[in-house]
Amino acid sequence: MLSLLLTMLINTPLQATEYIYRDLMANSLAPAHCDAEPKARDAAAKPYNIERFSKKFCQTQGYGWHVEEIKTAGNTVCDSCGNQADLKRCHQEDIVVSCKRIKPGTVGMLPGKG
Question: Can you tell me the distance from the alpha carbon of 77 to that of 79, in angstroms, rounded to the nearest whole number?
Fold first, then answer.
């Protein structure tokens, strides 16, 4: 009896969670204030900012999308602030992020079934 129960548990297929993946390329936004160029470049390339914008990029895809990995942090690009040549506003261009979400129907109950 015990061996029959064990074989049934071992032979039952476990349904693995399947995911849908999507790679995105986007740019971060420049801050509202201007700084000296070295400080502005450092602020734009901070890991915190890259992660924050990456999360936003994936969330814009719809409900359930999350960051799988940040593939490329992009390039830092700076623009001048009006007539002040020494002050800059910097942001990251071409950040590449891999997003994922659970494939519908692979986990849990399907609507109207069960």
Answer: 7
Give the span between the Cα atoms of 21 and 55, in whole angstroms.
14
Q: Taking the domains of the chain in order of start, what are their residue ranges?
A: 17-100
Consecutive H or E run containing 24: strand 19-26
Q: Is the pLDDT of residue 36 over 90?
A: yes
pLDDT, tens digit (0-9, with 9 covering 90-100), for 70-113: 999 999 999 998 888 789 999 999 999 999 999 988 876 555 55
Enter the tokens of residue 60.
């814009």
- State the sign of the Cα–Cα–Cα–Cα dihedral 103, 109, 112, 114: positive
pTM summary value: 0.75
| Exposed / middle / buried, residue 3 (Cβ in 10 Å: 0-12, 13-18, 19+) | exposed
CA 3 → CA 6, 7, 80, 96, 111, distances in Å?
5, 6, 75, 52, 36
